[in-house]
Amino acid sequence: MLKGVAMKIGATLAFALMAALIKASSPDFPVSEIVFFRSLFAMATLALWLASRGEWPSALKTTRPFGHVGRSLAGSGGMYGYFVSLAFLPLADAAAFTFVSPLLVVPLASVALGEAVTPARAGAVVAGFLGVLVMLSGHLGGGVGSVAGVSAALAGAASTAFAMVQISRLSRSESTGAIVFYFSAVTAVLSLALLLLAAAWPEGTALTALASGQRFVAPGALSFTALATIGLLGGCGQIFLTHSYRFAEASVIAAFDYVAMIWAAALGWLLFAEIPTAGVLAGAAIVMTAGGALLAWERRAAGLRDVAGGRSA
């Protein structure tokens, strides 16, 4: 279980660095273009990782193509929602809204995967929810931009919760390489299709203004490097995230999404001069304590099960 938690924490760091680059790139590039580069270079990262393990392309074999499509569509919705929220919200605030996902994973995992919702897991979810409320209280009564950011973040968080449960389900029979590759491939195709649709959208019709703002923008050398790095970080984070579900249950892994708050607050301060409010810091402390308590409880429960199993042998 500890290996799975360590991989999840590594994934949160990679995604936090990716989010900082996305926020910096958002004023200059449409969201579909950022999603496209993120997906394209994530596939390159995955190919290199699999090749280094001698698993390219054999690891891409699958017996569950429709399962991958469902996971990919849910993950794409989560990605779009989160990327849009980064354009409107401070980095730490956008990260805080993603904490809705693990709150949804516990009941979803119970229904879809048959995982037990123990009192410890339920307590961690409740504590995490209270922490999120503390962090997000500053957005009550916000302006149009804040409302747009919050709406996108919440929609993305709901989609991500479904994707997380589907990852756990697929990991029972599918390789990490297949799960990550097909997600990146579907998202790349979807984002490219939206870019082409925006380019072909006729002038003077409904949604012309929206389409014009989503047309491809040719990046310079520095911007291209940033967009490529977004994809590389996303690929690394996705590999860590997907692999983590092989070593711990989805309900446990979900609790450690909250570590992202630490990375987001630090990067927001260092790169964008965004000072986390007392509410954000207090909420982060609550959710981190909940995650740590859950890990300690799960380790103790696993130890007791091992002892009981040894006695009955």
Automatic annotation (TrEMBL):
Its main location: membrane. The chain crosses the membrane at residues 34-51, 72-89, 95-113, 120-140, 146-167, 179-201, 221-241, 253-272, 278-297. PANTHER family: ACYL-MALONYL CONDENSING ENZYME-RELATED, SOLUTE CARRIER FAMILY 35 MEMBER G1. This is EamA-like transporter family protein. Belongs to the drug/metabolite transporter (DMT) superfamily. 10 TMS drug/metabolite exporter (DME) (TC 2.A.7.3) family. Keywords: Membrane, Transmembrane, Transmembrane helix. One of its GO terms (cellular component) is membrane. It is found in: Membrane. Residues 3-136 form the EamA domain. The keyword Membrane applies. It comes from Roseiarcus fermentans. SUPFAM superfamilies: Multidrug resistance efflux transporter EmrE (SSF103481). Signal peptide: none annotated. InterPro entries: EamA_dom, EmrE-like. The keyword Acyltransferase does not apply. It is a multi-pass membrane protein. The lineage of its organism: Bacteria, Pseudomonadati, Pseudomonadota, Alphaproteobacteria, Hyphomicrobiales.
